[in-house]
Amino acid sequence: MTHTKSREIRLKNRPAGLPRETDFELAEVELAAIGAGEVLVQNIYMSVDPYMRGRMIDRKSYVPSFQLGEPLDGGCVGRVIASKNGPFHVGDYVSGMLGWREYFVSDGQGLVKVDPARAPIQSYLGTLGMPGLTAWAGLLEIGRPKEGDTVFVSAAAGAVGSVVCQIAKLKGCRVVGSAGSDEKVAWLINEAGVDAAFNYKKVEDVIAEVGKYCPKGIDVYFENVGGVHLEAALEHMNTHGRIVMCGMISMYNATQPVPGPTNLAYIIMKQLTMQGFIVIDHYDKIQQFYSDMAKWIAEGQIKWKETVVDGIENAPKAFTGLFKGENFGKMIVKIGPDAGDQE
Ligand SMILES: NC(=O)c1ccc[n+]([C@@H]2O[C@H](COP(=O)([O-])OP(=O)(O)OC[C@H]3O[C@@H](n4cnc5c(N)ncnc54)[C@H](OP(=O)(O)O)[C@@H]3O)[C@@H](O)[C@H]2O)c1
Fold it and tell me: N or C: which end of the chain has fewer CB within 10 A?
């Protein structure tokens, strides 16, 4: 084995509010030699995702909390560089859940081979990965959009939101997106093909703005943000509308309880369905997801943006950037060389 050391990011403090870089530490560990049935993977890309903020809190949830002094984990794509595990060969690209470190030894559990011919490997952390599946399953299974419906999407230029917008367009819906910069708004209209989009940071009244762009009301609201966006959606939902509760990022760093929307009673008056979901429940449909996405990507119907931050030491900064809108599309950290880099 040629590689004996690996750098990793550990949680140093449980953050209060927006995480600071001092809440993390970079450490170096010795790698164990691989044994029978094991593989050594060199990570090339790792994902930073909003849900990781919840894992930094010591509480019971659908996924275990990160432990102080321990490396973080999360989605990653890398290359097998040594193998004593039959199905995995040196040079195979794999995705797994041991990000935030440069190398890892695995017995193969949780490792999935990824096909670089279908799409660039880092897209298995975004459009072809967990965020893409979240968009596909959340919109189609919970939002159940019908042709002609108006679909409103918050954080519309993000990893999940941008895919939701484009799938909704493919289903014949009128799509309205909200995003935090003029550049994101322009991309949504000119590249993603939404019918209307606005920069929520520049408008005085989000509720009025949503009404302006959704003159026939909203049939499906895909919730990524919470706060005033949810209040605006409730205000303009049509009778029997569906609210897909995917995420509420505006609350993730709150240090005090956040007040709920003042107009929740619309759920009764408008006979709305508001349903939360976690993507983990939808991995049994991943082949259908791949098949839909591969077709749409080949037809040029799904486009995406990525913000790639270089270097494992910059992963905490990339992570906190999610809460400041510093990512355009999927936020990814490049932590190892890809084949092309070595030429
Ligand atoms: N339920 C599930 O299984 C599941 C799975 C994946 C993701 N999610 C959720 O889906 C949402 C989107 O995740 P993602 O991975 O696609 O992230 P993302 O949208 O790529 O990145 C986060 C974006 O949220 C926006 N944002 C941050 N703070 C905000 C605030 N205070 N108010 C309004 N917007 C804010 C920023 O965009 P702007 O520039 O537009 O402000 C930022 O770029 C998150 O809430 C996440 O927790 C849920």
Answer: C
